[in-house]
Design brief:
The chain is mainly alpha-helical. Helices cover 68% and strands 11% of the residues. The two termini are 78 Å apart.
Length: 342
């Protein structure tokens, strides 16, 4: 009943309300920052996985080398048992030497069993990080890792994946705050209508008839202003607090990384010094000591007590070398990870 009491007119209206354009832009920025955050999370996970695989690999290498060293030690003590039995039978020594040799041989056998168990555990850990179930075959003579000079600079921490992830969290928090601030702006509505006005209309002083085939159109523009600002102000304050929390977490993460990095560098220097000693002097001295003790004992120049002391000390040096090598590798792996390297 637009033009008369007759229900013959019709009106079609299309309308759409949407948020202020800056809100849509802010939402777009937020989604982009969240996408970057997801990518940083993936990078962090990948870096952590590489670190764990390397650590497990070199731990397994250490276990295999230690098993090989125990086999060498077992061979030495087996020969010791044979010599002690022979000397006992010929009356050159008493039964104590023979019992001591047998005891040492049994002790090494137990150590070998424990070492085999350790190797099985290290192998399972490597399989777990690799995500495989079938046995893994590795080269036990893996080279010792070297620490690059640029990974020893504290500035390299800026490439740490955890720190980069924390930085991205700040950007996400800022983008979220921007959205809440933009929500104070009004919503916009646009409308379009088309209708009939059946009947006579005065057009420039002349009565003209308009039928149902003649339509009249128009549009509308509106702004929807929020009546209550306090609830949105509360959301803005909450977003501001989240931004401050993200910033504080970033600073805390950065301080922890710096402290850990400095500690690792000190451990690296000590581990490198220890490893270099065994590599350059210790191993050679241990080998000479083994050969000297073996020849002297066979020649009867020393007793079994001195012989055992020489063997124990030489084998101990070799085991300390393996421990120092593994410790050095593990520290380098951690430094490379914390400095953002591979």
């Amino acid at each position: 009943q637009s033009n008369s009491i007759v229900n013959s007119d019709n009106n079609i209206t299309l309308s759409q309300s949407f948020e202020f354009p800056t809100i849509m832009l802010a939402q777009s920025r937020l989604q982009k920052e969240k996408t970057h955050l997801a990518k940083q999370s993936r990078t962090l996970t990948e870096k952590e996985l590489v670190r764990e695989v390397k650590a497990a690999y070199y731990q397994l290498v250490f276990g295999l080398k230690r098993s090989a060293l125990l086999k060498q030690q077992d061979s030495i003590y087996q020969n010791f048992v044979k010599l002690a039995d022979l000397r006992y039978k010929t009356g050159e020594t008493n039964n104590l030497e023979r019992l001591t040799a047998q005891g040492k041989s049994h002790e090494v056998m137990l150590q070998q069993q424990q070492a085999a168990t350790d190797v099985a555990v290290y192998l399972q850990q490597l399989q777990q990080w690799l995500g495989v179930t079938q046995p893994v075959s590795i080269v036990s003579e893996a080279p010792t890792l070297n620490l690059l000079a640029n990974n020893m600079d504290v500035a390299s921490l800026e490439h740490n994946p955890l720190l980069t992830y924390s930085q991205q969290q700040i950007k996400v928090a800022k983008a979220s705050k921007s959205i809440e601030k933009n929500r104070l702006l009004p919503d916009i509505s646009l409308g379009y209508f088309s209708q009939t006005l059946i009947g006579f209309q005065n057009v420039n002083g002349t009565e003209q008839y308009f039928g149902p085939d003649k339509r009249f159109t128009g549009f509308s523009v509106g702004l929807a202003l929020p009546l209550w600002f306090r609830p949105q102000q509360g959301k803005i304050q909450a977003a501001t607090m989240e931004n401050k929390i993200a910033q504080a977490e970033y600073e805390n993460t950065r301080n922890i990384l710096r402290s850990s990095f400095n500690q690792l560098l000190q451990q690296y220097k000590q581990a490198r010094t220890s490893f270099d000693y065994y590599q350059q002097q210790g191993l050679e001295q241990a080998e000479i000591q083994l050969q000297t003790a073996e020849k002297s004992y066979r020649a009867g120049e020393i007793g079994y007590v001195e012989y055992l002391q020489g063997i124990t000390q030489a084998i101990g040096i070799k085991e300390q070398h393996l421990t120092a090598s593994n410790r050095l590798n593990q520290i380098i792996i951690q430094i490379n990870f914390i400095s953002g390297g591979n």
